[in-house]
Amino acid sequence: MLLVFQKKMPHIDSSAYIVESAAVIGDVVIGPESSIWFNAVIRGDVNYIRIGKRTNIQDGCVLHVARKKYPLTIGDEVTVGHNATLHACTIESRCLIGMGATVMDGATIGENCIVGAGSLVTPSTTI
Question: Is this prediction's pTM over 0.90?
């Protein structure tokens, strides 16, 4: 489901795949060959969200932003595991965010990193 928020409509590349039960809201851009799976919520309401190419956001993930200071950016070829929460952070390319992990405001996960299942990455942490 794609929803307009404050006159901003998500922009989805024509080669991306989004299942019907996922919610993509507001200022969101999803790149080529990326996929968004069942019951994921991608909410670009008070800031923007950018998702690169060949990235997959798995079932039940929540992606959100913080007002003004922290958008959410995800690079290319990233896997975000089931029920992970990404809040106002940066995930660089070729990362794996494990199932149930949480990455908080201002945190940066550098290229080629793995965040283990169930992990908490606290605000402003760089890995």
Answer: yes
Angle at 106 between CA 115 and CA 104, to 5 degrees: 50
Question: Domain tally for the chain?
Answer: 1
The boundaries of the domain holding residue 116 are: 2-121
- Write down the residue that tokens 């793995």 correspond to: 114
**Average pLDDT in the chain:** 98
User: Is 126 among the domain residues?
Assistant: no
Cβ burial of 122 (10 Å; 0-12, 13-18, 19+) is exposed
Residue 31 pLDDT > 90: yes
**What is the distance between the alpha carbons of residues 96 and 78, in angstroms, rounded to a whole number?**
6
In angstroms, rounded to a whole number, what is the distance separating the alpha carbons of residues 64 and 88?
6
**12 vs 108: CA distance, rounded Å:** 24
What is the CATH number for 53? Answer: 2.160.10.10
68 has pLDDT over 90: no
